[in-house]
Amino acid sequence: MNPKNPVTLPDLTLAGAERRLCVEALTRTGSLIEAAELLGTNRHALRRLIAKHKIEWWPYAQQQPRWKGPRQQARVR
Known about the structure:
Layout: H1 14-29, H2 32-39, H3 43-52, H4 59-62
């Protein structure tokens, strides 16, 4: 690698890449367990990544006719 010509990815950060991989795996498989296997991890780790990156993943609820979106957490006063 030549230090005078560094390789840069201005539009991609590690967190951004992690989020994109999670979303892509979930979209391709439609299953939390299968997406985790595709990513080489387990469902618990994938659920933590979903929470970390604030990815909306409610496949069963979203298929219901009365779905209105994820519940808002109660505010602590």
